[in-house]
Structure formats: structure tokens, C-alpha cells
Amino acid sequence: MKQKGIVGVYGEGNALINDYLLRVQGLSDPNVIRAAPTADDIALFAGTGLTPVGRVTYVDDLYRNLEPQTVRGLDFGLNVGLRDTGIGDFTISANVAYLLKYFRDASPDIQVLIDARAAGTINEDTTIPEGGDLVRNDGFPRWRASGSLTWKLGQFTAGAFVSHRSSVIDDDITVSGQNWTVKSYTTANSMCSTT
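Now predict its structure.
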């Protein structure tokens, strides 16, 4: 599946990097709202060639178009209903999804920042999300599976549900320089009722 016209937020971090790039060019990002520079701010900027600015009070993080993304996977489902079996009615369902590819290109706005970093206009250590393969990143597990079983006999109903997700990497949390890995997990619940 190729998704186009995706809408999302630019991101506060990206807006701050863009503000940095524009300030190097003598401009500023109007979405980055700053307080007036203090004496300490002015001293901090001394000798940098940049106009002193105050602390960021907020970033107006607007929605905008993002680049296309390609998603490929396999999704298998099974639904079976067994009626009047002599020991009640059964409903069985199962779903398994395997994510083969989840790739997002860098948007034109992000590409400007990447190019500026490559050209040395902004610091080469500036971290910029460059898109790429998102499988296992930020909540996109490779495997997801779920299943349920419901049994009904007269006015009595009982059921169970189980769900499994494989591990993912949380890019927002680092431990000892490594992104946090959220281990795979399985949850289950059951219910019974009479009517």
C-alpha cells in the first residue's frame, strides 16, 4: 500500500532546527515563539555571528503534508461459527498480521534540514529524523496476533481473548546511548455472563 497526502505535525524539534538554520541565514522561523533575550542570552551569543534570541516559550507545531510512505504486510484472518453442536454454540476468531515493510521518505521540509547539515550550514551533530524503515520503531511491531473463543449454552456465555505484539523500539527513550526496546508481550482476558 502506497500512502500519499499524509498529514502530520512537523515536530517541535524540527521547527527548532529550522529556526537555527534560518537564524544562520539572518531570518527566523515564525512558528518558534521566543521571549526577549536577557543579558545572559546576549552574552551566550557573543562571538557566534548570530543575533541573540531569548528562550523558546512555545512552538506552533502546525499540521502539514508529509512524504509518501509504503506499507507492505500480510494479514490473515479466520472466523468460524459452530451452531447447535449439542454442547452449545462456539465462535472462534483469529487474526495474524506480519509487517514486511513500513518505509517513509523524508519530507521536503526535512530534506532542507538534512541538506543544510550535509553542507555544514548547521552543526553536523544535529539529530534530524530522516525517515526510513519504521518496522519495529515507535509502535509498529513486526508481528501482531489476536484470537478469541466464545461459548454459549442457553443463557450462559463464556469467552476468552488473547492478544500478542512483538517487540518495538522507542526512539524517544534512550538508556546508556541505546534506544529503549519494549519487549514483546501477550495479554489475555476472559468473561462469563448469564442473560
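The chain is about 15% helix and 45% strand.
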